[in-house]
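Ticket 4471: requesting a sanity check on a complex prediction with calcium ion. Repro inputs:
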Amino acid sequence: HEKSIVAEFDKALENGEFCMYLQPQLDSRGALLGAEALVRWNHPKRGLLYPDSFIGILEKTGIIYKLDNFIWEKAAEKIKEWNAAGYEDYHISVNISAKDFYYLDLYKVLTDIVRRYGIAPKHLNLEITETVIMSDVKMHMEILDRLQKFGFQIEIDDFGSGYSSLNMLKDICSDVLKIDREFLRETENAVRSRDILEEIIRLSNRMNMTVITEGVETREQVDMLTDMGCRVFQGYYFSKPIPIHEFEDKYNVVQVN
Ligand code: C2E
Ligand code: CA
Ligand code: CA
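Returned structure tokens:
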């Protein structure tokens, strides 16, 4: 399986088999704020493949940087289109892998993309998982710091799923904290999970970071999180990740042709 993924990858990218899905990020009343770009592989034989079945393999070999680069371009292109159609408030958040830091001059690639498409860096948000940052704090911080000074919004993804999260917050002035959806899972430690959630939200607000809770699936969760001070949500309760046209229809973002 791994070998065939790697062997097929370049051709698949060339043939346009990869596409960008969007999952909305909204306020508690369902007003659109932006979206996260999530990749799907339209495999000619195996049908629609989800990232969990190929991202890990592409990461292991390093070629994930080609796919990430492709998605960043797609996201920038979309932002440009939306801007041209008069929608100038929405951002798209893209994922950045650990390997991207090694295979690419991230600063150059990302600043180059926003220049080429003529979009504001604050509309292309960069999601980096806490685990990636922690794997080489000094190197990652230096690059993220420069990207942030350029105007990108830095989002810490899957916050609370790895190690040393609190220590990291001291050094990284991220703009957005995305709380790992594990905290919403019903467990026998539900009360403790809820207490931690509430305190993370309080802390983020105090440090002027926007908090996004991922994986909200019910109205009750949205209400509970709203009471706790969370203002931005992403999850199946509002929408699954969907193809671009579906997204634009659903949220009335006019398409320019
Ligand atoms: P992620 O960055 O944490 O993305 C959120 C994942 O949670 C998505 O899975 C999304 O479909 C899922 N999700 C959102 N709301 C809910 C919910 O309410 N309930 C549940 N159970 N799940 C929800 P997806 O699209 O399968 O992506 C999985 C992971 O693959 C992503 O996790 C991300 O780490 C990675 N990934 C996706 N696209 C890319 C990409 O273009 N580049 C890189 N490097 N990684 C990507
Ligand atoms: Ca993400
Ligand atoms: Ca996440």
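Notes from triage: DSSP finds eleven helices and ten strands in the chain. Leaving this open until the requester confirms.
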